[in-house]
Input
Amino acid sequence: MTILKNNKFIKIYKENLSIKTRKEIERFFLSFAAAWFFKTLLNEFPFFIQLFYLGHFDTLLQNIIINETRFILNGIGYSVYTEGIFLQIEDTPGVRFEFGCLAVRHLTLFAVFILFYYGKWYHKVWYIICGVFVITGVNAIRASLLCIFQVHKPESFATMHDIVFPPFMYLLIFILWIIWVLLWGNVNFER
Output
């Protein structure tokens, strides 16, 4: 306990920020921790994943993302073949839209983070719905780009899928959160 009392960061934190600002910063970290907890709980434990499948949310989300991806690829001139959860541009191996490719983790993280943060509940409802559309649309663009990589640079598909694109999805969630805080989060930082 004496380590925390004598910690230089905590002293600076308490001396330079008002109680209101400290509470808002703490609320941010608590909201983030709750969002990460629920994201992990709902997306990593078989019981909750089975509830997702039983409600047929996976099929609905797969169909939405596959149709959006097909629309994008057809719009830029690629001939696309789809069957079930499989989407393929001619002469490529194609992609499968499994649970991890549906951005359920990102959707959960975003929704819970907004729910636990400041703001009026009716603003939260419509903002979460809009955010779900934005995240799903960006996920369809991501899937389209992965399909295009299979045509033009097939050797870089795994790198793009596993390393390059995931941070962009989290960056999108962060940007959506910043928009929320600035416009509807009712946060007034003061020194």
